[in-house]
Amino acid sequence: MGVMTAVLLIEDDDNLRDALSLALHRYGHKVTAAASGEAGLAALADGAPDIVVLDVMLPGVDGFEVCRRIRARSGVPVIMLTARGEDVDVVSGLETGADDYVVKPVQPRILDARIKAVLRRTPTAPTVDGREVHGDLVIDRDALTLTEGARRPELTRTEWQLLLALSERPGQVLSREQLLERVWGFDHLGGSRLVDACVQRLRAKIEKEPSNPRYVQTVRGFGYRFGPVA
């Protein structure tokens, strides 16, 4: 067996937490389980998980607030578990910084596939000269660093992959379906919501005016394009 993926599972339902922990271990993951948001945040501070699986409906500090606190200090990928899959839950989770979501009842093999898909999205640097200048935005594809003027925005791996996909060909329009395939790598019923929420988070980090974006532009009825920036 190769290196085990470290999964932090935050779920208050004892039976589901135990079942998912056992199943994920059988799929080759090392699982640390927490029964509340506070316990999960403490476990995150004590260790360095590769990914967090986070229930929305937690006692005390709910999953949305836990995700916000995680994002305030870490770019670790987060998959949220939602009981209903309703738009308000899904969109709220994505807007707080989640990378993906799974609707309950959770099938362990589906969760395992989602975990592996999210972790595969780590940006890989090309072998050729990769430093690009787009106005005030400088993208170094080799070092995977980003500057915007005097700022150095910190991106999650999903945000990085989205930025690299869009900036690869400035001016070219990519549909949401194309971005979903290139960034997430699989078909997803909530695909447009995943893409739109990630675009919104990316704009908040790299645009001076997110409501009037210079870099990540919307092409109504088609999708998104990067610039071109003069």
Characterize the structure shown.
With 230 residues, the protein is α/β, with parallel strands linked by helices. It has 2 domains: 5-119, 3-Layer(aba) Sandwich (Rossmann fold), CATH 3.40.50.2300; 131-226, Winged helix-like DNA-binding domain superfamily/Winged helix DNA-binding domain (Arc Repressor Mutant, subunit A, Orthogonal Bundle). Helix content is 40%, strand content 21%. The chain is built from 8 helices and 11 strands. Strands 2-1-3-4-5 form a 5-stranded parallel sheet, with helices on both faces. It has a 3-stranded antiparallel sheet with strand order 6-7-8, with no helix packed on it. The chain has a 3-stranded antiparallel sheet with strand order 9-11-10. It is elongated, with a radius of gyration of 18 Å. The N and C termini lie far apart (50 Å). Residues 124-128 have low confidence and may be disordered.
